[in-house]
Amino acid sequence: MKKNLMALCAIGIFLGTCSHAEAQIGNRLKGIFGMDATSSDTVKSAKNVTSQSAGQEVTKLEANSAIKQALGNGLQASIHMLSAKDGYLGDAAVKILMPEQAQKVEKALRAVGMGSLCDQFITSMNRAAETAVNEAGEVFVNSLSQMTINDAYNILLSGQEDAATSYFKTNTTAELSQRFTPVIESAMGENNVADYWTQLTSAYNRLPLSSKVETNLTTYVTQKAIDGLFVKVADQELKIRNNLGGSRSTDLLSKVFGWADKQK
């Protein structure tokens, strides 16, 4: 209980630097950790595990709390980075480029001196993604709240450095797509994505020997925004698992992930 309270204090400090929307998500995360620390069913389950496994240094309750704390921190950090201006555009690992079907358009237009139009289009897609990524917060919180003790324990000891990220991909991708799509559509309108696309394709179609290019831009940008989000979530998970940059910032994280290191 003491360790969980320390963990909540650490999360509170972290959330103090976040936006209002992020802070609301953070409050829900605190609620999840609070339930883990006080739920009689959860505590009873953890006690049973301890009694059945003499000498076990970390209970499933501790593993559950540590995994959720680590993921909560990582998710907040990922969303905070990507929702900032140039969060997508300025990061080569997640920057949204021309759709594959349209890369011949880009190549042809840059060859005839229309590179600035291509750049404007790419910028507009990334701005739309930066607007939409805040929608991920509540989806991830819902997924965390549904994560069972066994889920968390399996993630901790899976031996896969992206086990938590894979869990989220499986459990949140469909809802993320649902939540992102209308925001992407709106943001694409505000950032003139369709206008730039029309200009690009019209210019391309006027070139000799060109063939018509069709792609669903909303679906494309939505999927790329989600892909980029999971790239960042995986980065945060890797930091915790390898204790990079002092990412095991609480006693609970140090204890649980340190114990997991010895199980490898």
Mean pLDDT: 78
How large, in whole angstroms, is the Cα Rg? 22 Å
Secondary-structure element string: HHHHHHHHHHHH
Fraction of residues in helices? over 70%
Shape from CA axes?
elongated
Structural class: mainly alpha
Which assembly state applies to the chains in this document? single chain
Q: Supply the number of helical segments.
A: 12
Largest sheet: none
End-to-end gap: 27 Å
The beta-strand count equals 0
Q: Which percent range describes the beta-strand content? A: under 5%
What does this structure look like?
The protein is mainly α and 264 residues long. It contains 12 helices and no strands.
List keywords for this structure.
about 260 residues; mainly alpha
Quick recap:
With 264 residues, the chain is mainly alpha-helical. Helix content is 74%, strand content 0%.
Blueprint of the fold:
Blueprint: H1 2-15, H2 20-38, H3 40-52, H4 60-83, H5 103-111, H6 115-132, H7 136-146, H8 149-156, H9 163-190, H10 193-205, H11 217-242, H12 251-262
Helix pairs in contact: 1-2, 1-4, 2-4, 2-7, 4-7, 4-8, 4-11, 4-12, 5-6, 5-10, 6-9, 6-10, 6-11, 7-9, 9-11
